Amino acid sequence: xxxxxxxxxxxxxxxxxxxxxxxxxxxxxxxxxxxxxxxxxxxxxxxxxxxxxxxxxxxxxxxxxxxxxxxxxxxxxxxxxxxxxxxxxxxxxxxxxxxxxxxxxxxxxxxxxxxxxxxxxxxxxxxxxxxxxxxxxxxxxxxxxxxxxxxxxxxxxxxxxxxxxxxxxxxxxxxxxxxxxxxxxxxxxxxxxxxxxxxxxxxxxxxxxxxxxxxxxxxxxxxxxxxxxxxxxxxxxxxxxxxxxxxxxxxxxxxxxxxxxx
Amino acid sequence: xxxxxxxxxxxxxxxxxxxxxxxxxxxxxxxxxxxxxxxxxxxxxxxxxxxxxxxxxxxxxxxxxxxxxxxxxxxxxxxxxxxxxxxxxxxxxxxxxxxxxxxxxxxxxxxxxxxxxxxxxxxxxxxxxxxxxxxxxxxxxxxxxxxxxxxxxxxxxxxxxxxxxxxxxxxxxxxxxxxxxxxxxxxxxxxxxxxxxxxxxxxxxxxxxxxxxxxxxxxxxxxxxxxxxxxxxxxxxxxxxxxxxxxxxxxxxxxxxxxxxx
DNA sequence: CGGACGCTTGAGCTAATTCAAACTTAGTGG
DNA sequence: CCACTAAGTTTGAATTAGCTCAAGCGTCCG
Lengths: 262, 262
Hints:
The structure is a homodimer. By secondary structure, chain A is α+β, with helices and mostly antiparallel strands. The first copy, chain A, contains eight helices and ten strands. Chain A is globular, with a radius of gyration of 19 Å. The N and C termini of chain A lie far apart (41 Å). Chains A and B meet through strand 5, helix 3 and helix 4 of A and strand 5, helix 3 and helix 4 of B. The structure holds a DNA duplex.
């Protein structure tokens, strides 16, 4: 079918960069990853990529655009768990869990690379380094979820907004979108409210106050952090939980080669 | 040097039961697990098992007692991320992350089995089935964190209390503590408040109202769910996210035996 | 041009908070 | 065995952060 070639390299670089961050990736691992069958998928703004209950057969990696993991309650209330930016994995857990326990929606137009689950799992389970790297990526995602719990549980509205802006700014910078003081936030105030467990009216008031106080500037989806230090002080932000620093992995596995039988 | 023998079997049964839940565990896997060096550790109520910033060299598995993962803010506010019950893993992520980004405290007296990180990682990385099982356990934990985000973000106080009671009741039952209508909840109202992002005064009022309405009864740490259906209806509880049903894993890996070299 | 969507602001309301005090229980030591 | 303390629970009163409702905007797009 239309298995693509050219864009793979581009995205693969991001994937490799991310995995290399966690573990040693040698030529063998690289080749195995590059040999994975992939196809590109696109989603329109608002479209559900994964719906709760789905049983997708593919893992997805965001190539461009923003998406959101979310859970809806029966009465229409909904909570965003996490935003997904380019380079983030979409549902690795589909391999081991039978049905998705949450949904994922495209916020902007999203392009993603889809890798068949069995192929991906084969590669990762046959190579311990890749398996470990994948496990690490999962744990890192968990750390972001933990921080979301604290943010929404024990911080007031302006602390929450400041903290989220700083997180997203940092994550945008890492993937080369935005610079030291500004980034594009293609997320409506309704969605920010759903992420922070507040009403969109209140999000608006907080943002307006930040603007009036000279902390930020806003033009369309461009956010300028005019006084980043003040924002950081306001919510005691620390980027530690994003685990972005290139630290050597704690344990290195010996390379796979010959394994004793039995 | 006081490597223990007798209690291992007891706890190992819980560990095996949990892992078997996710993947096929054969004799080889079982033997590898049983051969792990372990020692028992105990912690007093209120004692920190892991402090943020620690760099522990051991993985821990709760044998008895309750503990809590939590994060504290500078000004003293603190948020409980998740409760840990017997059979739960303590910090698997220590293997791949350098410093713990959150703390764990014993709520009751806790006994745990400690397994050196390198030994555990060796076993799990040498056996793909165990590795997959461990990964699955991690993903399951993530699902509980996600539900915690929704609970605290988009539910009101009584929904939160009802939902948490139902979750903990279910988790207690799974490990053989408590029955269909009652369980022991050795957790003060202050801690419930820290888990649900509310004030302890308000937790008290909600619980009192539940008692007055005949939904629950309380005697010391014994909670009786007198009208479980009403509680479930109140918060639209579904235990799906706990992923407790013994479903077959989505993908089975071929057993490890001889592996081609190079 | 009209309609959909998102942003903004005001007014009134309420769920949950803070502060304060009393009370209950378990544990400790004389 | 009782006094004393510490920790947890309970309740009331006053306060407030954030909500809902409602209306008016601007902007984009077919």
